[in-house]
Amino acid sequence: MLPVPFNTLPNTALKPRKLGKGEILFRQSDPPSFLYFLRSGHVQLRRHTEAGEAIIIHNAHGGQTFAEASLFSSNYHCDAIACEPSELVAMNKIQILKTMRQNSLFAFALSARFATEMQAQRRKLELFSIKSAPQRIFAAIADGMLTGSVTSLAADIGLTHEATYRALAQLTRQGKLVKTGRGRYELAKIESRTTG
Amino acid sequence: MLPVPFNTLPNTALKPRKLGKGEILFRQSDPPSFLYFLRSGHVQLRRHTEAGEAIIIHNAHGGQTFAEASLFSSNYHCDAIACEPSELVAMNKIQILKTMRQNSLFAFALSARFATEMQAQRRKLELFSIKSAPQRIFAAIADGMLTGSVTSLAADIGLTHEATYRALAQLTRQGKLVKTGRGRYELAKIESRTTG
DNA sequence: CCAGATATATGACTGAAATCATATGGAAGC
DNA sequence: GCTTCCATATGATTTCAGTCATATATCTGG
């Protein structure tokens, strides 16, 4: 199912797509007709410098939407390439704009979605600006980001899994985290101070 | 002047505020009545763990808006504290919501603002996920982020100014950038390959 | 049940950015 | 014009995350 409020769009506005590894979803020069929900896989948004160097704008993963700004723009600002086999839903821009005009609740919910996303991204950006691995991991766990595996957390917060495991061990020794199981850590409720 | 579309709000929706260093703008427990435009200064949004550790959610600087998500929420999710003397404009949440309902152009422009902001943040997040200083700086310059001083760029992209100057020198030696003046660098138009 | 794959965990070593230090060029204020 | 302050720039040292290696635990599929 699509995330709110896209789940209320008529089926005529939606078009499923499948991409193989390396396939191009759209190019910078294409007129932007769709925004996308990525069911599964990995799509990369890229720009290129005049000298031909690729600049990665965004990495979209399963469950995420992307190219939202194309709603309000007459150009895509980047190319979109599937880095893995990917399943998507293309959502028609014109029909979304029409729905926004006709259905103020939809427009409202879309704004809410954008605002919430902005907030989450600001938090994540602040997380990435923490240089120290232990501090970054502590903040990530405080943000409730350790839901799956430690490995996936590590990838999510821009650290190697080795650095992550080490920092988790250190934070546990320091009493800032408690290890509740293999690969499971929680915030310590009461700050304890131990060297280590 | 306020950024689009807040500049179209009636004056009754706006309330200027000044905060001294360390003053609290709002607390997590406060009902969210305003979103804010920060004219100048530095406001930090923070949460606290049960053990009392502060988690920085966002650093707002001059020219930015923050607490947008409060429009759609019944709670602030963090405390807001001025880290420097700051001038703000508090924008009334109720009146903004009312304007959104009554003026679809305003609602549309607000969505557009949010979507653009999301896009910019995703780009910046991708920038921060580049570990190598030279590569990060190259991407930042390709994104047109070197408008002011090198020092402010360095702070903006999460590197020390020393690392930034060194990387700029290296990229220039490699022919990927051209130095157009003291503290001024641009992308080289044609990729040249030199060791260094 | 067994084999292979993946996640967890940690040790050793390396490399790159942070830190600390120093020097110079410009801009701003007196 | 002179002083002060900040940005630019680079050298020396340290620190810490990355990389490479190894071992074990758990999960998955045949």
Question: Would you mind describing this structure in some detail?
Answer:
The structure is a homodimer of 196-residue chains. Chain A has 2 domains: 6-113, Sandwich (Jelly Rolls); 130-187, Winged helix-like DNA-binding domain superfamily/Winged helix DNA-binding domain (Arc Repressor Mutant, subunit A), CATH 1.10.10.10. The first copy, chain A, is of the alpha+beta class and 196 residues long. The longest helix of chain A has 25 residues, at 104-128. In chain A, a hairpin with a 2-residue loop joins strand 9 (177-181) and strand 10 (184-187). A 4-stranded antiparallel β-sheet of chain A has the order 1-8-3-6. In chain A, strands 2-7-4-5 form a 4-stranded antiparallel β-sheet, with no helix packed on it. A two-stranded antiparallel sheet of chain A has the order 9-10. The model of chain A has no long low-confidence stretch (mean pLDDT 95). Chain A has helices at 93-102, 104-128, 133-142, 150-156, 161-173; strands at 14-19, 24-26, 34-40, 42-48, 54-61, 64-66, 79-82, 86-92, 177-181, 184-187. At the A-B interface, strand 5, helix 2 and helix 3 of A face strand 5, helix 2 and helix 3 of B. Chain A binds a DNA duplex (30 and 30 nucleotides) through helix 5.
